[in-house]
Amino acid sequence: MIGHDTTEIRPSRPRVSRPVWWLLLVVCAVCNMATSMSDLHFLVGAGFGLAAGGCAAALIVRHHADRRR
Predict the structure, then answer these.
(1) What is the predicted pLDDT for the residue at 65?
(2) CB count, 10 Å around CB of 55?
């Protein structure tokens, strides 16, 4: 087709800012350390550890996505 634009338009998604990810990472890491030293069930600490790992992964993905631009 003549004059048909084939560029893809991506919908903009709201992105969580980097300081929010860092804050969540620090909070989850501190909670993980606190639950490790307390008498809480080990799954509580594991949950905070997984959340901290997820925050770290999000920061890494965001870093690589911003690097490509």
Answers:
(1) 85
(2) 21
